[in-house]
Amino acid sequence: MWKMIKDFHIEMSRGLAGRPSSLKMLPAYVDRPTGREKGKFIALDLGGTNFRVLDICLKGSGASSKPRAMKFVLKKKLVKGSADPLFGFLADSISRFLRKEKIGPARAIDMGFTFSFPMKQKGVASGSLVLWTKGFNVRGVIGKDVVALLKKALDKKGLGRVRIAALANDTVGTMVARSYSDPHCDVGVIIGTGTNACYAEKLANIRKLNGPKMGSMIVNIEWGNFNKLEKTSYDKKLDASSDRPGEQVLEKMVSGMYIGELARLVIKGLIGKKAIFNGTSSPGLEKAYNFRTEYVSEAASDRSHNLGKMKSRLKSLGIPNSTLEDRRTVKSVCEMVSARAARVSGAAVAAVITKMDPTLSKMHTVAVDGSVYEKLPRFSKNIAKALQEIFGRKAGRIRLVLTKDGSGKGAAIIAAVAASGE
Ligand code: GLC
User: Fold this and answer.
1) Is the pTM of this model over 0.85?
2) Which of 254, 138, 149, 237 is nearest to 196 (CA)?
3) Which atom of ligand 1 is nearest to the CA of 194?
4) pLDDT, tens only, 252-266
5) Are 297 and 375 in contact (CB under 8 A)?
6) Tens digits of per-residue pLDDT, 16-29?
7) Among 100, 207, 257, 376, which residue's CB has the most CB atoms within a 10 Å radius?
8) Most ligand 1 atoms within 8 A of CB, residue of 24, 45, 79, 170 to mutate
């Protein structure tokens, strides 16, 4: 973990200076909010299996209303197709939301757009996609401004009155949402389908940015792409058969998109060594990505004497006659894959915090969201344990706080900051 922290710092500094690095260190053109931001905003959230639209009222003084929200499922053909159908669908969904919530033409609409992919920004209200991650592969978007693409689709639907005031990565949204009521919050982390983090950096340290050097700005690290990590043979196999070999190395060890597949590859390896299931596999276990991350959760939470839940899960995967010994082995495989993911995340959090505050001289809140962090048994505990191993008692200065659905609210707050800055 210490080696990882050291390499992480080197890569962060390189990325901030605009030199080649596995960490892109993308400036977000927004700083932490004051908590006094006010007004009604629509927030959009794109980055996983659903597109969400929310209506949020920020009350100032760190409070906000419970958002009204709608979810729209993104079909596979949309996330692997071309730009027009995807942005057309987003515009349609927004229009349905406005109709359902009876938000008529009388209300000016300012939107905050959470777009959970790496993007290069030149200001808070625009950004061009650097690359797709998490299985998205939509033609004609890389290098283009996603706000302009959405605006064009909205205009086509007669929604020209909608203004996209802010664009943010989900980590930035999550950090900003927590910061609204917590002045100690200076890191945002997502550990879900993908994984990434952002933090508050001094402008003087963002050497690739020209302009004022006073104050600070949030930087999207894109830590999923960190590549100074020791790979096992399973990591290498997963990478080689992935959409983009060589990219998102840390994400492939940590995030929900890959944890199940890693466990499957280890299980297959053990079958090959005749260490489990008498050396017999099944079509269900041979199929890539068929062992889902939810099954890893299920295995880790199965505390029954005969591991009954796992027995039926294995049955459904075509292994009807597992022994208790087999199931114990599979359970520990799942726990190990998950524990490594948590320790890698813990070391990454430690690296980000010590970049800002090498001696841990103050308190830090880390706002965290994502299904892996929230749902995988012992995941958050294992991160806390890793931080304790690294920092000893000083780990008490770091608080990880689950910030559910923060990214939508954060986008609204950023839109408010942007709107008030005019
Ligand atoms: C992927 C994306 C990143 C996002 C993360 C969590 O790593 O590249 O932008 O923040 O997933 O959703």
Assistant:
1) yes
2) 254
3) 11
4) 999 999 999 999 999
5) yes
6) 999 999 999 999 99
7) 376
8) 170
Q: Which residues pair with 220 in a beta bridge?
A: 26, 198
Pull the structure tokens for residue 276.
């489990």
134 catalytic per annotation: yes
120-176 pLDDT per residue, tens: 999 999 999 999 999 899 999 999 999 999 999 999 999 999 999 999 999 999 999
**Gap between the Cα atoms of 267 and 83, Å rounded:** 39
CATH number, span 24-182+405-416: 3.30.420.40
Q: Could you read off the pLDDT of 362-379 as tens digits, one per residue?
A: 999 999 999 999 999 999
Answer yes or no: are the C-beta atoms of 134 and 191 closer than 8 Å. no
Ligand 1 site residues, Cβ closer than 6 angstroms? 47, 116-118, 133-134, 169-171, 190, 192, 194-196, 222, 224, 251
Ranges of each domain in the chain: 24-182+405-416
Residue closest to 136 by CA, chosen among 193, 79, 83, 192: 79
Catalytic one among 55, 110, 145, 170?
170
Please give the structure tokens belonging to residue 111.
Answer: 């939107």
